[in-house]
Amino acid sequence: MTPAKQRLDNEPGEAVDTQSVRELLERGRTLTTPVLRAAVDRLASPMDTVAAYHFGWIDTDGRPSSGDGGKAVRPALALLSAEAAGAVPETGVPGAVAVELVHNFSLLHDDLMDGDEQRRHRDTVWKVHGPAQAILVGDALFALAGEILLELGTPEAGRATRRLTLATRRLIDGQAQDISYEHRDVVTVEECLDMEGNKTGALLACAASIGAVLGGADDRTADALASYGHHLGLAFQAVDDLLGIWGDPESTGKQTWSDLRQRKKSLPVAAALGAQGEAATRLAKLMAADAKKSQAEFEDFDEAEFAERAALIEQAGGREWTSQEAQRQHTTALAALDSVDMPGRVREQLAALADFVVVRQR
What we know:
The two termini are 32 Å apart. A hairpin with a 2-residue loop joins strand 1 (118-119) and strand 2. This protein has 362 residues and is mainly alpha-helical. It has helices at residues 3-6, 18-40, 47-54, 73-84, 93-114, 125-129, 131-150, 155-181, 189-214, 219-246, 249-252, 258-261, 267-273, 278-291, 295-299, 303-315, 318-336, 344-359; strands at residues 118-119, 122-123. Helix 3 packs across helix 7 (131-150), helix 10 runs antiparallel to helix 17 and helix 14 crosses helix 16. The longest helix has 28 residues, at 219-246. Mean pLDDT is 91; it is low at 1-15. 71% of the residues lie in helices and 1% in strands. The chain has a two-stranded antiparallel sheet with strand order 1-2.
């Protein structure tokens, strides 16, 4: 039995080796941050400063900051991907940086589109520096991503850039779907999974394969690693959807019921609306009425109204279904690794990272 298969029974909530995973995340952060900072330094003023604030390197007054720069899951994946292809982890650094630039491009734009005022326990860029800077810096980070890869000048860099470009287009498709769903009464689970596969799964699939591509892996190997990353992304997003409704604001850095405030048709909502029973019927009526309200009216809701919606989602089975879906996607992600010939240590680390994503507490 392979190490990946041995870990398929890990259930959400079961303890994982978080220390080894944190070491992987820290390695990704340590190797990629200097290259990422050098890339950001290329930007014209004030975009370089705005980007540095977004990444947590400086505070609102421009002073050095040790703010949280994110979980670093994508860089960790890119470095492990290179090792899965038999290369040294440093081979994956340009891919890790490019993926991080695209990811943060999407965060800057998403925060503005969603009206989010907090990210990583700090005011978002659009709130501090204005919408125009959020748009410009996001665009600049996107351009830098391709620049970083193409500067390598190798055939592998061209292959990696094509994968990143496709992933970026799918990510944008997912954001467009997400926005359109906010104004619909009902979104099916299948539609929600398609959207989340684009918005989250595509870039994690790229992160999980781009290091291998840069290391010279063939398409069969890269595609298998991408499948692992895609399903890991769906598991990751399912957990995020749970936290978006029931997460502790002290841990998530967002408001209570944050996804409900934004009228997101996330997986728990879609699953609940697709269920049978009194709770699902009541929830559908409330959300149909919500859809007719302006955002200003919606933001006037008190905590009890959001709490009622969250309770109905749980009563209709949306919370439990989403938790189970996270585990299903986790299992599928690990199964994708079985076709890849890689060092046993790397396989175990990819499995541990998948475990961490599904059971993580923030």
